[in-house]
Design brief:
With 88 residues, the protein is of the alpha+beta class. It has one domain. The chain is 36% helix and 9% strand. The chain is built from 2 helices and 2 strands, in the order αββα. It has a two-stranded antiparallel sheet. The termini are far apart.
């Protein structure tokens, strides 16, 4: 929520830029249901780009959740079962 100034840490201009960007995405989403807005990298809807997530940082834009379909399949199966495995 763009609150880096509330912490006593040595944040950089790059940190503040990312915080501002993330706050803009959250504000847009909260007010319109769509995170996208003027001056922001396009954040694709999950139904248009399944298996993607948004990366914010040195490079900003959509990236695969997992590097391969096999890795994505693993995560889909893992999160489909909310109970952790029982230890014998």
């Amino acid at each position: 929520m763009n609150s880096l100034s509330k912490s006593d840490r040595p944040f950089t201009d790059a940190d503040r830029k990312i915080a501002n960007m993330m706050s803009s995405y959250w504000l847009n989403f909260a007010t319109t249901g769509d995170p996208n807005g003027k001056g922001l990298a396009a954040w694709p809807a999950v139904d248009k780009k399944p298996g993607m997530t948004m990366q914010l940082g040195d490079k900003t834009g959509p990236i695969p959740v997992a590097g391969t379909k096999a890795k994505l399949s693993f995560f889909e199966q893992f999160f489909a079962n909310p109970r952790p495995p029982q230890v014998p």
